[in-house]
Design goal:
This is L19 ribosomal protein. The chain has about 100 residues and is mainly alpha-helical. It has 5 helices and no strands. The longest helix has 27 residues.
Length: about 100
C-alpha cells in the first residue's frame, strides 16, 4: 500500500491537472486587438504608412530625434505622443501586410 505522503502528492497532482483542463483560455494566444486599433488599421493609408516606415529606416539610428521626426527642442510629452503615433503607423502597416499574407 502507498504511503500517506505519496497518496497526498498524487491527489495534489490530480487536482492540478483538473485545474489545467478546466482553464481552456490558458494557451489560446494573444487577445484580439482593441476595436479602436482595428478601425485605425483599416482606415490607414497604406502608402503613407509605407513612406513613414521607409523614412524611419533611412533615418540616422544614432539620432533618436531624427527617428521620431522631431527637433531637439520638443517637450517630453510631445516626444511620447510622436512615438505612439509612429508605433501605430508602423504596427498598422505590419498588421495589414500580415493579415493580407495569411488570407
Amino acid at each position: 500500500m502507498p504511503s500517506a505522503e505519496l497518496l497526498a502528492a498524487a491527489a495534489k497532482l490530480t487536482e492540478a491537472q483538473a485545474e489545467l483542463n478546466e482553464d481552456t483560455d490558458l494557451f489560446i494566444g494573444p487577445p484580439p486587438p482593441p476595436p479602436a486599433l482595428v478601425t485605425e488599421v483599416e482606415s490607414a493609408n497604406e502608402i503613407e504608412c509605407f513612406e513613414e516606415v521607409t523614412r524611419i529606416i533611412a533615418s540616422d539610428a544614432d539620432n533618436s530625434y531624427d527617428v521620431l521626426g522631431a527637433n531637439r527642442n520638443i517637450l517630453n510629452d510631445n516626444i511620447k505622443k510622436q512615438y505612439l503615433k509612429l508605433s501605430r503607423i508602423v504596427h498598422a502597416l505590419i498588421l495589414k501586410l500580415t493579415t493580407r499574407s495569411s488570407s
